[in-house]
Amino acid sequence: MAIAEEKGIISEVDGVKVVFQAFDLPNSRIVHGNVFPLALNVSKVSGAQVTVDEQANALRDLSRRGITTDLMNKHGALIIRGARDPSARAFSVLVHAAEEGRDHKPYDQLGLAGSRTVHDKEVFSASESPQHLWIHQHNEYSRYTRFPSNIHFFCSEAADEGGESPFAHSAEFFERVNEEMPEFVEEANKKGLISPDVYRAPGKEAKNFIFTWAGPLAFGRDIKPGDDMETKKAKAEKQAARLTPHFWWLDDDQLEVHQEVPAMRRHPATGKPVWFNSLAGRYGTAWDRGATDPPYLGDDGMAFPPATYRDGSAIPKKYLHRNWEISKEIQVLVKAQPGDLALVDNYQVAHGRAPWTKGNRKILVSMWDTDNPEEKIRDY
Question: What is the rounded CA–CA span in Å between residue 53 and residue 286?
């Protein structure tokens, strides 16, 4: 049976006793009376180090018993330090154990405005943008009409300086925005959001964010070598239509896609409002590129159109800017170690990436979803 995480959580599989023991994580916060994120060290009860398979067996056991879900509902994110194997294969084994034990399934990515490389089964590079760039707070795919319930990260290689993984609690985010800008929250709730994205044509990638509409995780999964441009575009349209009817072609074979989404939701387990959107991430990226004013073109030549209300009216810049500032004020910068696993509830935790100046950094990602309607995010 499980005991309080402060005393350790015990799992025994095939005679191997493993303990998940909480430890202090620098920069962690207290959100609604709970440590955010919760850090757990995994070892054998004897004190010996666990193998990847032993850690996976223990994770699957905790998930089957409902403990993983309970902890994630309570803390939002878990930082699990155990086997210290930094390989993509280890990540795949661990994340499959944790999520299959909860009867969750891999998330089918669609419309990715970024680039990712497959490293193992359901394991991808988290981001391939240049190391000097911030990736600002966002819930994964929250500006889309489809999104995963969970997103998990794994440290394969840690930078010597910088490269922290920032996490922000979306319930705390909502409370701060609502406290400081209640009129913005009211308007956003009433009108909803439109999140525009402009995808470049294949062969015409931008300097910093190298992606096109033809990417296999964007809209190009059916595109084959030898397809001419019109065939590629027709295939891309079929995939874009799975997300939204609002898309059209621009000059130079660029594709603009608009998705209508709420600005906030409610968490299925806690019932608390969550600021589930990508406003901070979009604005912060545009700010870094000098593109927060018309015509919203960055110093890299890329278009960064701002989010608007669903009726097409502009969101005042003062709201977008303060929203971005709040995201930085509440974020927890986690300095991961090789082999660290982060299990993240995408509904109530936003994430980002800090730049790094020394060494190499390699963070992997895996996304999962649930078919259980009781676990699905709620309307506000």
Answer: 43
What is the distance between the alpha carbons of residues 181 and 299, in angstroms, rounded to a whole number? Answer: 31
CA atoms within 13 A on the CB side of 180: 15
Secondary structure (3-state) at 159: coil
Q: Which residues of 217-239 are buried (b: 16+ CB within 10 A; e: fewer)?
A: bbbbbebeeeeeeeebbebbeeb
DSSP sequence for 168-193: EEHHHHHHHHHHH-HHHHHHHHHH-E
Q: Which residue has the tokens 């920069």?
A: 27
Q: Is this structure's pTM higher than 0.90?
A: yes
Cα–Cα distance measured from residue 200 to residue 214, given in angstroms and rounded to the nearest whole number: 9
Q: In angstroms, rounded to a whole number, what is the distance separating the alpha carbons of residues 224 and 245?
A: 24
Tokens found for residue 311: 């009726």
Chain center to CA of 54: 27
What pLDDT shows up at residue 209? Answer: 75
Residue 334 to residue 37: CA distance in whole angstroms? 9
Q: What is the pLDDT of residue 6?
A: 55
| Residues 47, 311: Cα–Cα separation, whole Å | 59
Do 243 and 111 form a contact (C-beta atoms < 8 A)? yes
Quote the tokens at residue 174.
Answer: 């909502």
- Cis check: omega of the bond before 216, within 30 degrees of 0: no
Pair 88, 156: CB distance under 8 Å? yes
Percent of the chain exceeding pLDDT 90 equals 93
Nearest CA to 277 out of 143, 77, 120 is that of 143
1 pLDDT higher than 60: no
Tokens of 156: 């394969």
User: How confident is the model over 235-254, as a mean pLDDT?
Assistant: 97
Q: Are 88 and 364 within 8 A, CB to CB?
A: yes
- Chain mean pLDDT for the chain: 95
| Helix, strand, coil shares, percent, the chain, to 5 | 25, 30, 45
Kindly tell me the number of DSSP H helices and DSSP E strands found in the chain: 8, 25
Distance in angstroms (rounded) separating the CA atoms of residues 259 and 160: 39
Residue labelled with tokens 């999520």: 99
Element at 278 (helix H, strand E): none
Question: What pairs with residue 119 in β-bridges?
Answer: none
